[in-house]
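Example with several molecule types.
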Amino acid sequence: MEIEERIEPLACGRDAAEVWDAAVAGRLDEHARSCPHCGAAAADALRLDGVVHRLADERPVPPASVLDRVMNAVADTVIAELRPQDLLVLDSPAGPARLSRAAAARVIRHVVDGMDGMRARSCRIEQDPDTGERTTAQVAITVTARFGVDLASVTARVRQMVLAAGEQALGVPVSRVDITVVDLWEGP
Amino acid sequence: MSTPAGSTPPPTPPVRLHVADVVVARIAAAAARAVPGVAALRPDLGQALLGLAGSLLGEQGGPLSAAGAAATVDGDVARISLTLVTTLGHNCRDLAAAVQRAVGAQIRTETGLGAVVTVTVADVALSPG
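Resulting structure tokens for the full complex:
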């Protein structure tokens, strides 16, 4: 991402993006293999990689009956009639393409939910209307964290997860991530 | 009847092929459904109710579904709009572009029309099925 400014590192001082890339490439160094903060960031990277590449190979199972499918379609349509302000612009070279903002937010929440010690609460994605060549999005997300999870690393990990998911799963480049930790929970 | 010697044979009468909007929509819908990562096309309310009526009446072997696709033919260009549900794991931007290319190519092959394909990803299925 070219818009990247200097950002907060993990609690151990490493850059989450570098740990992330090393984990995907399978070349974590000595420190990263033993450090819990780097370990968490590496686990995030591998998990997103799994989601993005494993599910792509699976074929969807057809629903039980045509009737179910139609009923679901009716329900979906009634609930979510898409208006232009509900859509994000996808930068497709082959014509006009858009993505439901609610669906994009759901994908981001889903991947953040899967992070160790983290639950996503709300997620909002904004996109500046047509600012030229590459339209970027801003994401605001609230999360709750497990008590004991290093909060300094949470910011770096969530930020990295949102940037990567935006690029890999959605195809929407993200230029800013606002993260609010709204609560803590106790447990495994 | 024989043509009098020296005269030219009558010219072939001009034939013009018109392809109805709904035909384009049905071809586009079928082409889009075949792209890997497209979980379904999402019909609008009218199409959904028609489909519901059809399945209640036990309609079989009806026309190829155009649900989730709309098209207007304008001269030699078809303007097509598709509403999709994709599967998580397929990059939405790349999938939209793949659908646009596949549909455009199919429309050109089958109708000879140029195609402008607008894709809206209405939803992303988080788990297959």
